[in-house]
Give the backbone structure.
Amino acid sequence: MKLVMAIIKPFKLDEVREALTPLGIQGLTVSEVKGFGRQKGQTEIYRGAEYQVSFLPKVKIEVAVKAEMADQVVEAICAAAKTDKIGDGKVFVFDIAKAVRIRTGETDGDAL
C-alpha cells in the first residue's frame, strides 16, 4: 500500500479529483495549507502599502492506494494539476505499513 501526497494550486483541486475518479479512487483527504518553494512568495498591495506574502495558499491531497496503482495515481495528479508555471506543486509517495477500517475492522488492502 502507498500513500500519495500532492501539494497543488487550489484552483486545480476539482480537475485532480475528476482525474482520479476513473481510476477507481473512492476517497481522498484534502487540506488547505500554506507554503513556499521556488516561488518565494509574492508581493501584494493592501491599502496602498506593499506587503511581501511569504507563504502561498496550496491544497494538500492525500490518497491511500494499493501499491500497483501508485504510478497511475501520480501520473493522473501530475497531468491534471500541471499549468506549466512555477508553483504547480509536488507529489510524494510513502509506504503504508498498516491500514484499518475502524467501522468493520478490515485491514490493509481491504480497508482501502
Summary: Helices lie at 13-20, 70-81. The mean pLDDT is 89.
